[in-house]
Amino acid sequence: MQTVSTLYINGQAVAGDRDAFPVINPATGDAFAHCPAASPEQVDDAVAAAGAAFKTFQYTPNAELKAMLHRIADLIDAHADELAQLVTLEQGKPLALAQMEVGAAAGWTRYTADLEIPVKVIEDSETRLAELHYKPLGVVGSITPWNWPLMIAVWHIMPALRTGNTVVSKPSSFTPFSTLKLVELINEVVPAGVINIVTGEGGIGRAMTQHADIRKIVFTGSTPTGQDIMRNAADNLKRLTLELGGNDAGIVLPGADLDRIAPALFQTAFINMGQTCAALKRLYVHESQYEDLCQRLAKIATEQVVGNGLEVDVTFGPVQNKAQLAIVAELVSDAKQQGARVLSGGDVQSGNGYFYPPTIVADVSNGVRLVDEEQFGPALPVVRYSDIDEAVAMANDNVNGLGASVWGEDVEQARSVAVRLESGTAWINNHSEVLPHCPFGGSKMSGIGVEFGEEGLLEYTQSQLLNISRG
C-alpha cells in the first residue's frame, strides 16, 4: 500500500498532520491505499485560506465564474478514466456506473456554470426602485458521504463557486480519493484558497460545523448527523442545506403494466446497490398483482452478476463498508423472523469483500424494521395493500420524506395519489431521478433546503434589497 494524493490548503498540496489511514476496497475487504489525515489545526488553516481568498473572489465577474466552471468540467472529462477507477476502487460500484458518475459530474458542472443569478425587481415606480440582489455568503463547508463520492462533491462545490463563495471540503473517510482528485483539478483553475480539502475523522467534521468563520454547511448523510450539525451551527447561525435520510415509498396502482414497470422498479430500487438516498426503499403493491410482481422482481434480481466492479460483465457490486453490510443483513434477518418470504438473495455472500446479493422480501408490512427503517442497501421489502387510501397511509407513515413514487397506466389517477404523498419529490412511473434544473430536497426528517436549479443555487447566497429613492 502507498499513500496517494495530498490535502490541498491555500492552493498547495500539503501532508496531513496525523497518521494516514487505510482506505478499504469493498470488493476485497482489504486496504488499497492510505489517505492523509488532517488535524483540527489544519481545518483552521483551510478556513483561514478560504476566508482570505473570499475577500477578492466574491467580486469575480459572472462571466469569469462561468468560464472557470467550464474549464473544471473539461478537466473532469480529461481525467475521466482515472476518476472512474478511483470511484470503483473506493466505493465498489461497477466501473460502468462509475463512468456514468464521472460523466454526470462533468455535465452537472457545465449546467451549473450556465445558471444565472437573478436580480429581481420588486418595485419600479416614480418614487422608488427596489431590487433584490443575491450576494455570496463567504466560506462554505461541504461534508459529503460515501455512496456517490464524486457526484455529491460536485453538487456541493460547483454552486458554491458559481455564486462566488470559497469552499472547505471534507469527503467521507471511506471514499476520499475521488474528491481529493477533484479538488486537485479545481485548483488548476481557481485562485489559491478558493477550494481547500481536509480528510479524516477525530473531530474534523465537528471542527467545521462549529467553526465561527464558516458561513454555510452543506451536508448529505444521515439524519442524526444532520441534527448534530444543526446544533453545532447555532452559535453563528450558519446557513444550512441538509439532504438527509430517505425511506422512499413507491405505490403500484391496480392494473399497472408489469412488463413495463418491473425493470424500472428494480433499477430505481437497486441503483448503486440500493445505496442512494432517493432510491425506492419500500414498495406497496395492490393485492391483485402482488405475487406476480414479486416474482418478476426476484427473477431480475437473480439475473444480476455480483462481483468486483472492475471485472467485466459485473452488474452488481458490494455494499460499500462492513458496518452498512451488517445493517442490511440484520434488517433482512429480522424480517425473516417476522415471517417474511425471501424470494432472492437474503444472506451475506461468502468470501472476500462486502457482498450482499439483490434481495426481494415479500410478506412484510409496516411495523417490520426492514419497512420502517432505511436499509440503504440491496434489500427491497414489498408490501401488499387492498385499497389506495391504505397504501397512501402506509407510505406516509414514516418519519422520512425525501422522495416517493406512483406507478400506473392512468397518469391522472397517479397524479391524484402522488400529490397526497409526504415527500420532497413525487415521481410518476419513475423514481430516484434527480436533474440539474429541478429543485431537490426532503420533507419531514429528510432534511432542510433544496439543491439544484435556481432555487438550489440561491441557497449559497444572501439576499440584499437595494432600495433606491427617486423622490
Automatic annotation (TrEMBL):
Keywords: Oxidoreductase. Residues 17-464 form the Aldehyde dehydrogenase domain. CDD domains: ALDH_AldA-AAD23400. The active site is at residue 243. Pfam families: Aldedh. It comes from the Bacteria. Belongs to the aldehyde dehydrogenase family. This is Acyl-CoA reductase-like NAD-dependent aldehyde dehydrogenase. It comes from Marinobacterium halophilum.
